[in-house]
Design goal:
Elements (H helix, E strand, L loop, with lengths): L1 H20 L7 E5 L4 H10 L3 E5 L5 H8 L4 E4 L24 H17 L3 E4 L1 H9 L4 E2 L2 H4 L15 E6 L4 H6 L3 E5 L5 E2 L6 E7 L4 E6 L8 E4 L14 H17 L1
Amino acid sequence: MRKYAIILLLAAGIFITGCQTGQKDTDPVKIAITKTNDYYSALVERNRENTVWINLYGLPVDSALLILGQCDGLLVTGGEDVYPGLYGKLSDTARCEGFDRYRDSLELASIAYALEQKMPVFGICRGLQILNVALNGTLIIDIPTDFDTVVKHRLKDWKKCFHEVTTIPNTLLNKLSNTASDTVNSAHHQGIDHLGNGLRISAYAYDSLPEAIEWAERNNNGFLMATQWHPERLDPDHPLSKNLAVAFLHEAETYHQNH
């Protein structure tokens, strides 16, 4: 409880200072990360100055939502399998590789809040998967077992697992990355089965497995993009890393200026 109180007080200090000064142009942009590590925080820090990040993991969900409400963007990160009971495949639980039910609850609540507020959202690996589930999509339980492919989507040494992805013309991903295809890292055994409501696939692996998603129609929705690969582990200047992170943080800055 003491840890939660300290985090809340620190966060409140940042937010109150910003409100008192009224200097939107100089206030830091604040990014909520559902569960961070050095890779994710570095992705944020290297792609925009004057940006702070807050790790939501470990907080009670209601406290995390209070903090998220003072942030400008949500980064939903990689990790454990999403509990299959959340997308109608409870009978496949034994074929999964471990869950974090607290994290599922935290991220589903955070995603719902961010989408309602039209806050920019960027998902990575598991982040793509739980975004798809949050929008009533489903997942492939185990790619090696359930999906006919020769592509290696995961190796024991994740640093050695790479494959090519192709971006879809006229998607936001294609526009931002300015690339038709490129090589990315890969570290997942699950993936999109049925696509969530309102989404479209913006990149595929050459075995036709979806590798990225975004809104089918932006309309009045906020920025949303998610990748199955890990941009935070790619070369910092890789177009499927840097360009996406810069775009997400730019959208967060715009959200910051308007709220």
